[in-house]
Specification:
This protein has one domain: CDP-alcohol phosphotransferase transmembrane (TM) domain (Four Helix Bundle (Hemerythrin (Met), subunit A)). It has 8 helices and no strands. α3 packs antiparallel against α6.
């Protein structure tokens, strides 16, 4: 069991970019401007919604600017991750803790996951797979939080934790934009929707493996 006086930073998601100078300067700048961590969390949800709309529009294969929509959605993925990085750093930098802080940290994330995967489901014409992935993503966060409630440990083990899911989604969207934009790739039998559908399958498989790993590690911890 963790100590009640344990440093909360010990249970933060391990992100190497948190130690970069640009990230620390940006966090300090946001604090100076009075932008709260909760507002940043809400902004991450906004980027997810914009990405979802872009992918919904991209389902119309007749659109000339379909590749641009993929790129825009990929940018939204990365901006969502930037918000996820900044909300925690701003909270630590400002030393401000609100009663609803934990809710703002988690709830927008869950809806953001669902919005992005539903968007990819629209673009890939595979909504069933997107909904399965959405359920798995929520289950992964539930097991992590449940484990935290049991023994104070936040388990972020992969191979398909949130950063990996968003990285793969970003890569798939950029690849799909190339498939749709380059004439040489248009002659191939692979379409943009094929690329996105394949990425959904990879994430579903990875999430199942991650779920099994987290459950096993939780059982091992509580059985000691």
């Amino acid at each position: 069991m963790s100590s009640p006086n344990a440093d909360p930073s010990e249970n933060r998601r391990p992100i190497s970019s948190r130690n970069h100078n640009w990230a620390q300067r940006l966090a300090r700048s946001l604090v100076k401007k009075g932008i709260s961590a909760n507002r940043i969390s809400l902004t991450s949800l906004l980027f997810a919604a914009v990405g979802c709309v872009a992918l919904w529009l991209s389902a119309d294969v007749s659109l000339r600017w379909q590749p641009s929509l993929y790129v825009g959605a990929a940018l939204c993925c990365q901006l969502r991750l930037l918000c996820n990085l900044m909300d925690g750093m701003v909270a630590m930098e400002s030393s401000v803790k609100t009663p609803t802080g934990a809710l703002w940290n988690e709830i927008p994330d869950r809806f953001s996951d669902i919005l992005f995967f539903v968007g990819v489901g629209f673009a890939a014409n595979d909504m069933t797979l997107a909904l399965v992935l959405s359920v798995l993503a929520v289950l992964l966060s539930y097991v992590r939080e449940f484990g935290h409630g049991v023994d104070g440990t936040m388990d972020y083990v992969g191979p398909m934790a949130k950063p990996q899911r968003m990285a793969l989604t970003t890569f798939a969207l950029l690849l799909a934009s190339l498939v749709g934009a380059l004439p040489v790739l248009k002659t191939m039998s692979v379409t943009s929707s094929d690329v996105l559908s394949f990425s959904l399958w990879v994430m579903v498989f990875g999430c199942v493996v991650t779920l099994i790993r987290r459950l096993k590690r939780l059982v091992d911890r509580v059985s000691r």
